[in-house]
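Extended Data, panel c. Modelled sequence:
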Amino acid sequence: MEKMSATTNAINWFEIPMTDVLRAKAFYERIFEIEMISIDMMGMQMHMFPSAMEPGKASGGLVKSENHVPSQTGCVIYLNGNPDLQAVLNRIEPAGGSITMPKTFIDADTGYMAFSS
């Protein structure tokens, strides 16, 4: 099996269900220091990560629709926190989120991970 390089996309697209559009958008814009792209498409309110408009980039967005219902556990999506995962984690609590598993070393090939809500 070929090992993924740092530039390989592991995610093609993801949709994070939301109910509070403004809160969700503000949270992700703040922790990643980005401006999300807002559109209405096929009966859905979407706020896409900027990379959605870049060819060859994996991306996704926040979605509100009848078919997108947040659950208690939600979806598990691993987002790239490069070049410094800790810098992203440091912005989570001030943005209103919580860290449910701190930065944790996986292995030398994979690096680190963390969980937040």
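The longest strand covers residues 99-107. This feature is highlighted in the accompanying rendering.
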